[in-house]
Each structure stands twice: as C-alpha cells, then as structure tokens.
Specification:
InterPro entries: GH, GH13_cat_dom, Glyco_hydro_b, O16G_dom_2. It comes from Georgenia halotolerans. The protein folds into two domains: 3-102 and 183-392 and 434-476, TIM Barrel; 492-586, Immunoglobulin-like. It is built from 17 helices and 26 strands. Helix 5 (183-198) packs parallel to helix 6 (246-258). The chain is globular and about 75 Å long. 48% of the residues are buried. 1-O-alpha-D-glucopyranosyl-D-fructose binds next to loops.
C-alpha cells in the first residue's frame, strides 16, 4: 500500500454537528460539544472524522445551503473553535474530513446575491439563469424552462421577478446550482479547497458531486425530462447525473487542489452506476478515492420510490453489494455504509429494533458491512444501536425533504395519514435525533430545548451504558475496527458471495492468495495455502440453518468475532445460527 493510500484500511466516523452535542444550551449541537466528546470517538478506534457542514448558513437544509465557505456558522462556534478541533483530532491520531457542498450555494451567499442583482452582473453566469419557456411571461405554472422535478418536491426553477428570469435549484429554492461550465466558478472552488487544506484538514466528502455537470445543449438549452406519472413534472436526472464534463471537472480539481496531498476524497453520487464508479475511482484517472453509491439503499424501495418502502428481500441486497464488490475489485475502491444523516437508522430498517433483538441485529449488521472490501463509514449513534425516531405528527418533523413532500402530496389530494405513514420509516429526521449520551434529561445532549425531540429509548440506549458493557454494540464495532487494522485480508482479500438465494443468511468469503516463493532449504517452489475469512450472518429473527458446501475447513477456523459466544458448533458443512447470530472465522 502506498503512503497516500492510507484510507484503504481506515474507518470513518461521521458527525452531524447539529445533533451531536450542545455545549451552550441553545438546543443545537456545536463544535465545543464535539470537542468534549472526542474521546468517545477515539475509543471506538476510528481513523477519520467526517464533519457534516459547519459553515455559515441560513440552515434551510441544515447547513447544506452554504452562505460562506470560509467561515463557521455562529450556531456552531467560531473558526478558532474549528482550529482547536482540528488540532484535538490530530492529537488523538485521527484525521478530519470536511463536507464540500459545491453543486450549489445558499441563495444568501455573496456570489448568488451578486448574480441575482441583474442580467449584467459579472457573476450572472455563475448560476443557471434562464428565460421563461417560449410563449410564457414567467412566474406561472408551466412557464419553467424545463419540467424537472426537484429532489425536494416542486419545480427545480425559481422565478426571479426583478430580473424576469428563472434560476435552477436541484434541491431547495434556497440552494441555487452553481454553473460549473464557468471556469471562474471552478477556480473559486479550488481556491477555497486549498484554503481548507492549508488550515490542516485531511480531505473532503463531496456532496452530490456527480450532479455538477449539466447536459447543456449546443444552443444553451436544458432538455425536458420524461413525464412523471401523477405530477406535472418530468425526470431531469439523465441531464444532470454523471453529466458530460463530470470526469473532467473532478480530474481538474484533483490536479489543481490535492494531487500532492495524502487526502481522503469521497464523492457522494446519487444514481451512479458501477461502471461510472469504477471510472471515478480508478487511481490512474486521478479523480476521487471512492464514491458513495445509492444502489444498495434503493433495494427496499417499491414502485413509488423512496416514500414507498418495503420489507427487505435479503437476496436483493446481497446481489447488489456483491456486484459492487466484484465491479470494483480490480480498479477503483468501494465505500461502505448503512447510515448517514439522510438515511433511516439501519437497526430499525433492516435489523430488528425490538428489545429482544436490537443489540444482536445491530452487531450483525455491523459485521456484514465491515468485513466487506472498501472503506467503512459509521454514522454517529450507529455504534450505540440507535433506532428510528418514531415521530408522532408532521409538526415534529424538521427535515425540508419530508416537509415539502408532505405538503406536495397533500396539495395533490393524498390522504395525510397515508403520506405520513410513508414518511415515518424513511424520513431523514430518523438519523437526526440528538445523540444519546446518557439516561439523563435530553439524553445529555443539551441543557436546553433540543431542536428535534430526543428518542425516549435513550434511557436504555446511550453512550454511557455501551461504553461500560463489553458485550455492547460499541465494543463490537471497536473490535471490527481492530480486525480491519490488524488483518490485511480485510483490506485486500477478494470477495466471494456464498448462498446468494438464501433468504435469511448473508455469507461470504474474503480470500488472500497464498504467498508464492522459493523454499530456501530445498530450492523448490512453494505455495502457502490461501488465507480465508468467512463471514456468516443470520439476518433474521428466526433460527437459520445453512449448508456451506466445501467449506468444512473455513467453518472450523478461528472464530475472531461473534455475537453469541455459546453458538452451536458447525457439524461438517452444516451450521445452525440463532436469530441475528453472526461469526467471523479465519482459516
Ligand atoms: O444528499 C443528496 C441526495 O440526493 C439525498 O441523499 C437526498 O438528500 C435525499 O434524501 C434524496 O431523497 C446530499 C446531502 O447528503 C443532503 O443532506 C443534502 O440535503 C443534499 O445533498 C443537498 O445538499
């Protein structure tokens, strides 16, 4: 492994600052709150912290709408606090990766305010301004330049009365898209990134970085998308997902900003395919180290998409993850995640969050993910086995995506209770309830009124308890991280899926070919046996029995980590697993 490839054996921990720890009692997490809990993260044995946005922002999308890339929002603290945090992270032997949100800015960013000042503004072309559709005056329904549906409901175009043009926003109307065709935009972003590297940060998590290149036509037009049934909108994604100049823009960024730095770069990429991901992450191409795929997060979506979630059919998940493992085996690199600030809690989604199975299912989900090939990401609270929020009414939700979807559907005549039932299991607020530090008031998150309700189960599910209990989810994750750090097979072994059709059990091998060499004593060639790591996991709340043909030796190896110390021994090729039991076996 080259020195600059350190991230291949690293584990990343994501902090969502708003919900992590509040030091000043305003109900919103902040940098000094993070500083006071760094030892929790260090003890977990991770290598890197990824900090979700802490920049100056009106917080229409909780900081993913940035008004100043080079300042800290007062609700989170100051630049001096951030410098202190960078130093404290480094002191503990960890690294800090910043969130880079440059597909769009806030509409309150000085660049956009200047752009908006009129068609003659020198920054007009920094964003996507377009006149109304021919034959329309503008501002009325149907006059938008394209029919694209926003990620956050409604049109992707916002009418600006003063200059009689629309601007593009793939997300909220307060998140205007930057025009990456304009070289000044790219240079301004590069300069800002260099400023952060000079400040001591160790890399970037790049928000929706595969949406920055729009398929603008030779005449300057953006095309309409295929109509979405039941709405007046179309699907614009083919015209902005992995667009024509996406690779060029990332190569340019690499060469201009971090060619010589041993940084971690991860591109968040909704809609990315395996083939595209291989191109983005092939080191020869000098773009990014790894990408976040969304494919495995979509395997439980029904025909209605995200808001129409279904129980998991395990073979679908296995086949999807296996395809990514195999697709990026020779070139490129995977990132691995179950959770982040946009996804519901995995123990509630694909585990079993009942008191009986919550801990075992959280551990087994961790095992299955962390023994894959790639760089794992742990989202705050995942190491506690935190569950979904179970918010009671729409008034409790804060997430703009959930709220806009609710309003749009209800306006279209849908039954409000049915819409709420669709939102509850998948809303991003599930991930955003305050971190559960202890059993005290507000889970020790704040002394004030938390911005989002604390989950009542914090009395049993909290950091204080799991750090004390050697059999907890926390210590299981810590051991998973140790395995990654001590066994090269976890980083380098080839992946082979077993039992693809099995509906309860997720089983796979990692294989490191035996070293070939010459026996010094005899002079003849030798081949050590392959090293094999077997992962076998019951992903259900019932007993499961499997037959692992030809794997008697693998089954009889050293059990490195298990959820059930009193597990039944393998009998030949047959193994019976308790509900949510998993084992990692090395032979
Ligand atoms: O998310 C991009 C994205 O496409 C989704 O995760 C998304 O927000 C939504 O849940 C899709 O249904 C990134 C950030 O992670 C997210 O928090 C931001 O809201 C978004 O970009 C805009 O910056």
């Amino acid at each position: 492994m080259r020195h600059s490839d350190w991230w291949r054996s690293a584990v990343v921990y994501q902090i969502y600052p708003r919900s992590f720890a509040d030091s000043d009692g305003d109900g919103i997490g902040d940098l000094r709150g993070i500083l006071s809990h760094l030892d929790h993260i260090a003890e977990l044995g991770v290598d890197v912290i990824w900090l979700s946005p802490i920049y100056r922002s009106p917080h229409d999308d909780n900081g993913y709408d940035i008004a100043d890339y080079q300042d800290v929002d007062p609700s989170f603290g100051t630049l001096a606090d951030l410098d202190e945090l960078i130093a404290a992270v480094h002191d503990r032997g960890m690294k800090l990766v910043m969130d880079l949100v440059v597909n769009h800015t806030s509409d309150e960013h000085a660049w956009f305010e200047e752009s908006r000042s009129g068609p003659d503004s020198p920054k007009r072309d920094w964003y996507w301004w377009r006149p109304p559709r021919p034959g329309h005056t503008g501002g009325e329904e149907g006059a938008e330049p394209t029919n694209w549906h926003s990620f956050f409901s409604g049109s992707t175009w916002e009418w600006d009365e003063a200059s009689a043009e629309y601007y593009l926003h793939l997300f909220s109307r307060k998140q205007p898209d930057l025009n990456w065709e304009n070289v000044e935009v790219r240079q301004a972003v590069h300069a800002m990134m260099r400023w952060w590297l000079d400040r001591g940060v160790d890399g970037f998590r790049m928000d929706v970085i595969n949406l920055i290149s729009k398929a603008v036509q030779p005449d300057g037009d953006l095309p309409d998308g295929v109509a979405k049934p039941g709405t007046r909108f179309g699907d614009g994604s083919p015209f902005y997902t992995c667009g024509p100049r996406n690779h060029e823009f990332l190569r340019e960024m690499h060469d201009e900003v971090y060619a010589d730095a041993a940084v971690l770069t991860v591109g968040e990429m909704p809609g990315v395919t395996i083939d595209e991901a291989r191109r983005f992450t092939d080191p020869e191409r000098r773009e990014v180290n790894m990408v976040f795929t969304f494919e495995h997060m979509g395997v439980d979506h029904g025909p209605g998409g995200k808001w129409d979630s279904r129980p998991l059919h395990l073979p679908d998940l296995k086949l999807n993850l296996a395809a990514w493992q195999e697709g990026l085996a020779d070139q490129g690199w995977n990132s691995l995640y179950w959770n982040n600030h946009d996804q519901p809690r995995i123990v509630s989604r694909w585990g079993d969050d009942s008191p009986e199975h919550r801990v075992a299912s959280a551990k087994t989900l961790g095992t299955v993910l962390h023994m894959l090939r790639g760089t794992p990401y742990v989202y705050q609270g995942e190491e506690l086995g935190m569950t979904n929020a179970n918010l009671a009414s729409i008034d409790e939700y804060r997430d703009i995506e959930s709220l806009n979807h609710y309003r749009e559907q209800v306006a279209l005549g849908a039954d409000p209770q049915a819409v709420l039932a669709g939102i509850a299991p998948v809303s991003r607020d599930n991930a955003r309830t305050p971190m559960q530090w202890d059993a005290g008031p507000n889970a020790g998150f704040t002394t004030g009124e938390p911005w989002l309700p604390v989950t009542p189960n914090h009395v049993e599910v909290n950091a204080e308890i799991v750090r004390r209990d050697p059999d907890s989810v926390f210590h299981h994750y810590r051991r998973l991280h140790e395995l990654r750090h001590t066994l090269p097979i976890v980083t380098d072994g080839r992946f082979r899926l077993l039992l693809p059709e099995h509906e309860q059990v997720f089983a796979y091998l990692r294989v490191l070919p035996g070293a070939e060499g010459v026996d010094v004593a005899t002079g003849s060639g030798t081949t050590d046996a392959d090293q094999v790591l077997l992962v076998v996991a019951n992903m259900s709340s019932e007993l499961a029995t499997v037959r692992l043909e030809g794997l008697v030796n693998a089954l009889a190896g050293d059990v490195l980590l298990t959820t059930h110390d009193d597990g039944a021994p393998a009998v030949g090729e047959r193994l019976t697993l308790a509900p949510w039991e998993s084992r990692i076996v090395l032979s």
